[in-house]
Design a protein that fits this description.
The chain is mostly helical and 128 residues long. It has one domain. The chain is built from four helices and no strands. It is elongated, with a radius of gyration of 16 Å. The chain starts with a helix and ends with a helix.
Length: 128
């Protein structure tokens, strides 16, 4: 068993599940979306991205691209949250929360694409 592949798969799956956990709930209700879960999804997504840098195949390039999309969405969500709460003191209004959750939804979609590609790549390797 290749431990680097295990760690890579672990972080990809963890990124998806953390992002899903943050995303699920009423889109505009701050009580349904925890800032620490968003932060954890971002950190794990960044770790998964770093693990993808060593791959030199075409599939690795697509996985890296999807991971970068995830990170951009989650960074944007964190920036919106930070500005709303700490800079403008607008707070987590339903409109702001909907924007944050929508950005997380984009990241979730990119995470799911990455997960499907990883699964297809793994299934293809086992047939060779």
């Amino acid at each position: 068993m290749n431990m680097s592949k295990v760690m890579f798969g672990f972080f990809v799956l963890l990124a998806v599940t953390l992002n899903f956990g943050f995303f699920i709930g009423d889109i505009d209700n701050p009580q349904h979306h925890d800032v620490y879960e968003l932060f954890a999804a971002l950190v794990v997504g960044l770790i998964a991205t770093v693990l993808k840098f060593g791959e030199r195949s075409q599939m690795g390039a697509i996985l890296l691209a999807s991971s970068l999309v995830v990170n951009l969405h989650l960074i944007a969500a964190v920036i919106v949250w930070t500005i709303a709460v700490h800079v403008t003191e607008v707070g987590l209004t339903p409109r702001v929360m909907a924007s944050i959750v929508s950005l997380s939804g984009g990241a979730l979609l990119a995470n799911l694409v990455s997960l499907v590609l990883l699964t297809l790549d793994t299934a293809g390797l086992s047939r060779r």
